[in-house]
């Protein structure tokens, strides 16, 4: 039987997110849209909406429709002069969670060593560990703005290091790995033939970069063959309900190896999901959808930022530059709060849901007192949630 750690953040969500009347300020998707919203957003009214024409629901194309894989491949051309990615180098999965799992399942086993940034989505280190690999965590530090220090790889690498796992933008900190850092990681990995997996599920939501800093390219755009990117429709594209993600690699042999393993778990994804995703990634729909989400992220981050400034005696953070999440530390009289207790009591007394860093992102007591916000929800939800949080903080922490 497989030995795997419980997936803490998913279990906390499962237990708490359907609390009646919940004000969910923990959700990591940019506020979800309906199918009708997508059709409404479309800038080209001559574009047929995909579900209008009834089709027989066969398995369809096994690796994902050609059109969808082409549209996913074209995402990797953005912000780079790299060679276009062929559609054949993309394979469709059930969400980014399916993509990450399948990739580890295909490539990682006993005897392998994996380096993974931390904190991040627990799947990225717990799954390789469950497959028998040894995992070293590459700690992102507050004093570096949660951006990894490339030189530290020297101290982590081993002769059997097979993969370096990064997450850009990062969940939970909302930090961005700039291009120069990505280039450093690529140079390090290339010298040693190490595969890089970049979970880019929050890309391209680089909404609040400092002036003069460009959005980084995908890891696939940096001229190294052994690079893999995973992503999905859930976060930046607001369509978690279609459960559609992808694995893309510059190395076709990685995609072929994944396809062999995938036959045992997937056959193909839902044809309805494939068609809706393809429609959402067409230019007339994707453009307004992404500008809605960039604007929503900026508006909401300003609200959260004002809250942090107003309560600077009890909370602090590294302000996020991208993605949908922020990691905020709460203290009472200078002492970090007991974050899981804080979250449960806040929910019980105010119906506001946020996520505790422990156990969701911290091993042991790392990140004591830290709370993860998912702030790119509907703005009204954030405003109502912050109002209630403000009362709670005044009563309990000040
Ligand atoms: C970094 C990261 N990767 C993958 C996933 C899974 O996303 P999906 O809904 O596409 O399966 C999440 C969800 O929170 C995530 O934060």
Task: Please explain how this structure is put together.
By secondary structure, this protein is an alpha/beta fold. It folds into 2 domains: 139 residues, Aspartate Aminotransferase, domain 1 (Alpha-Beta Complex); 228 residues, Aspartate Aminotransferase, domain 2 (3-Layer(aba) Sandwich), CATH 3.40.640. The chain contains 13 helices and 14 strands. It has a 7-stranded mixed β-sheet with strand order 2-8-7-6-5-3-4, sandwiched between helices. Strand 9 and strand 10 form a beta hairpin. It starts with 7 loop residues before the first helix and ends with a helix. 46% of the residues are buried. It binds pyridoxal-5'-phosphate. Pyridoxal-5'-phosphate binds next to helix 4. Pfam families: Aminotran_1_2. GO terms for molecular function: pyridoxal phosphate binding; transferase activity. Keywords: Pyridoxal phosphate, Transferase. It comes from Canariomyces notabilis.
Would you kindly provide a brief summary of this structure?
This protein is α/β, with parallel strands linked by helices and 398 residues long. It has helices at 8-16, 35-41, 66-75, 95-107, 123-130, 153-156, 179-192, 252-262, 271-280, 283-310, 339-350, 357-360, 379-396; strands at 23-24, 90-93, 113-118, 134-139, 161-167, 195-199, 227-232, 245-249, 315-317, 325-332, 335-336, 352-353, 355-356, 370-374. Strand 5 (161-167), helix 7 (179-192) and strand 6 (195-199) form a beta-alpha-beta unit.
Estimated helix fraction: 25-40%
Estimate the global geometry from the Cα principal axes. Answer: globular
What Rg, in angstroms, do the CA atoms define? 21 Å
User: What proportion of the residues form beta strands (DSSP E)?
Assistant: 15-25%
Biggest sheet statistics: 7 strands, mixed
Query: How many strand units?
Result: 14
Spans where pLDDT lies below 50 across 5 or more residues: none
> Alpha-carbon distance between the termini?
49 Å
Biggest sheet, strands in spatial order?
2-8-7-6-5-3-4
- Please write the string of helix (H) and strand (E) elements: HEHHEHEHEHEHEEEHHHEEEHEEHEH
CATH topology of the largest domain: Aspartate Aminotransferase, domain 2
- The chain-level mean pLDDT equals 96
How does CATH name the architecture of the largest domain? 3-Layer(aba) Sandwich
């Amino acid at each position: 039987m497989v030995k795997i750690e419980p997936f803490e953040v998913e279990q906390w969500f499962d237990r708490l997110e359907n609390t009646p009347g919940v004000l969910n300020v923990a959700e990591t998707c940019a506020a979800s849209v309906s199918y009708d919203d997508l059709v409404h957003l479309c800038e080209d009214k001559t574009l047929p909406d995909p579900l209008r024409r009834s089709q027989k629901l066969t398995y369809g194309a096994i690796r994902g429709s050609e059109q969808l894989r082409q549209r996913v491949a074209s995402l990797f051309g953005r912000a780079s002069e790299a060679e276009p990615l062929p559609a054949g180098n993309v394979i469709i999965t059930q969400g980014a969670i399916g993509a990450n799992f399948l990739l580890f399942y295909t490539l990682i086993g006993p005897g392998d060593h994996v380096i993974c940034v931390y904190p991040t989505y627990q799947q990225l280190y717990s799954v390789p560990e469950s497959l028998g690999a040894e995992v070293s965590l590459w700690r992102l530090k507050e004093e570096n703005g949660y951006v990894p220090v490339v030189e530290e790889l020297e101290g982590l690498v081993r002769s059997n290091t097979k993969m370096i796992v990064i997450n850009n933008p990062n969940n939970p900190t909302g930090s961005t790995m700039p291009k120069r850092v990505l280039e450093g990681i690529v140079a390090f990995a290339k010298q040693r033939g190490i595969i890089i997996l970049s979970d880019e599920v929050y890309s391209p939501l680089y909404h609040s970069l400092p002036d003069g800093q460009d959005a980084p390219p995908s890891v696939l755009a940096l001229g190294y063959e052994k690079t893999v990117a995973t992503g999905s429709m859930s976060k930046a594209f607001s369509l978690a309900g279609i459960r559609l993600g992808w694995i893309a690699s510059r190395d076709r042999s990685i995609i072929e190896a994944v396809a062999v393993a995938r036959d045992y778990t997937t056959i193909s994804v839902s044809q309805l999901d494939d068609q809706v995703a393809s429609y959402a990634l067409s230019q007339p729909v994707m453009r307004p959808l992404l500008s809605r989400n960039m604007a929503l992220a900026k508006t909401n981050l300003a609200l959260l930022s004002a809250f942090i400034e107003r309560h600077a005696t009890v909370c602090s953070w590294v302000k996020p530059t991208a993605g949908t999440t922020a990691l905020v530390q709460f203290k009472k009289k200078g002492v970090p709060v007991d974050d899981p207790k804080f979250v449960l009591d806040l929910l019980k007394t105010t119906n506001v849901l946020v996520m505790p860093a422990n156990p969701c992102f911290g091993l042991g007591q790392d990140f004591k007192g830290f709370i993860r916000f998912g702030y790119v929800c509907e703005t009204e939800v954030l405003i109502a949630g912050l109002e209630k949080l403000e009362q709670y903080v005044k009563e309990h922490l000040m």
